[in-house]
Every structure is written in structure tokens, then in C-alpha cells.
Design brief:
Protein name: Rhomboid family intramembrane serine protease
Helix content: 55-70%
Low-confidence stretches: none
Largest sheet: none
Number of strands: 0
Strand content: under 5%
Oligomer: single chain
CATH class: Mainly Alpha
Radius of gyration: 17 Å
GO biological process, one term: proteolysis
Membrane topology: Multi-pass membrane protein
Pfam families: Rhomboid
CATH architecture: Up-down Bundle
Number of helices: 7
Distance between the termini: 32 Å
CATH superfamily: Rhomboid-like
Order of helices and strands: HHHHHHH
EC number: 3.4.21.105
Shape: globular
Length: 190
């Protein structure tokens, strides 16, 4: 329970940064620092985009899933949360920068939310521990509707962030699980 609360504090701090940036954006356009695909001047958007949101509803739509998913990941450890969070930002952002629609700026935490969603699903089934499988099933049942967010629905929604986030998160879950298994097997051989 202590780990869960530590990760919750970290998650809330991240969302507080998003809130502050949203308030600043009402005065000065900071959303310009999002991801503009294939524009070298916007490479920094890979790091900044998740913290930028267009309006209050955009921020709120990411708030609760982010808090829930990050807290579930944090059940392993706060370090695991940070590893998944940072890898999610870098991988999703890079894929969006490389392959998303041009002539637009992609912002928001939803790519990271989808990455955490993909991570939780793949990691649980790959790791095959009861708690992790239970979390995977719960995430699938409760948040299974997220799968529709990877489809184009509106010009103002970066479905590419959702799609690449889910793919990146699944890959992160797969490789972190594989890394755990390799470590366990090495420990058994000692």
C-alpha cells in the first residue's frame, strides 16, 4: 500500500505540472511546444507534448486514467513507474514525430495513458503472476473501450498518439517482462 501511495504522489505531481502549463497556456501559447511531425524544430515536443493540454476537458479526460494506470504500475515499485513513464514518453513521442499527420501539433498525456494501458495488458499476461493477470483483466474489462481511440474519429484528436502509445506500451510490457524472466532465470542458475 505504501508503494501505491508513493506512486500516487508522483502521478499527482505530474498532473499538477500539466495543470500549471494549462493555466500558463491561457496567457501565453505554450502548446506550440508540442510535437509537429517531422519538423526538426519541434523535436523537443517529444518531451514536452504529454504535459500540454488544449483545455480543461482534455486535461480531465487524461487525469483519471493516468492516475489509475500509473498507480497500478507503481504496485511493483516507484522505479518501475518512472521507467514505464519515461519510456512511454520517449517511444510514443518519437513514433508520433516520425509517422503522425503533418501540419498539426500533437499534445496531451493520452499517448502515455495508452502506453500504460498497453503495458498493463501485455505485462500481466506475459508475466503470468496472479496479481498481474488480474490487473490485465481488470484493465481490459474496465478500459477496453480505449481500443476505439486508436481509430480516426476527429481532426482535433491525435489518434496517432493513442495508436503509437498502445503499441509502445505493449512493447515495453513485453520487454520488461522478458527482462524479469531473464533475471529470475539467472538467479536460479546461481
Amino acid at each position: 500500500m505504501q508503494r501505491y501511495l508513493k506512486t500516487l504522489k508522483h502521478s499527482l505531481a505530474i498532473m499538477l505540472v500539466c495543470l500549471c502549463l494549462l493555466l500558463i497556456n491561457t496567457v501565453v501559447n505554450v502548446n506550440f511546444f508540442g510535437i509537429a511531425p517531422r519538423e526538426t524544430s519541434h523535436l523537443s515536443g517529444i518531451l514536452f507534448a504529454p504535459f500540454l493540454h488544449g483545455d480543461w476537458s482534455h486535461l480531465l479526460s487524461n487525469f483519471f486514467p493516468f492516475i489509475i494506470f500509473s498507480s497500478l504500475i507503481g504496485l511493483h515499485s516507484v522505479k518501475r513507474f518512472w521507467v514505464v513513464f519515461i519510456l512511454s514518453i520517449l517511444t510514443t513521442g518519437t513514433l508520433v514525430w516520425l509517422f503522425a499527420r503533418g501540419q498539426s501539433i500533437h499534445i496531451g498525456m493520452s499517448g502515455v495513458v495508452y502506453a500504460m494501458w498497453g503495458y498493463l495488458i501485455v505485462y500481466g499476461f506475459k508475466e503470468k503472476h496472479f496479481r498481474d493477470i488480474l490487473i490485465s483483466l481488470a484493465v481490459l474489462l474496465i478500459y477496453g473501450g480505449l481500443v476505439f481511440g486508436v481509430l480516426p474519429s476527429s481532426a482535433n484528436i491525435s489518434y496517432e498518439s493513442h495508436l503509437f502509445g498502445a503499441l509502445a506500451g505493449g512493447a515495453i510490457g513485453y520487454f520488461l517482462s522478458k527482462n524479469n524472466r531473464t533475471k529470475v532465470n539467472k538467479d536460479r542458475l546461481k
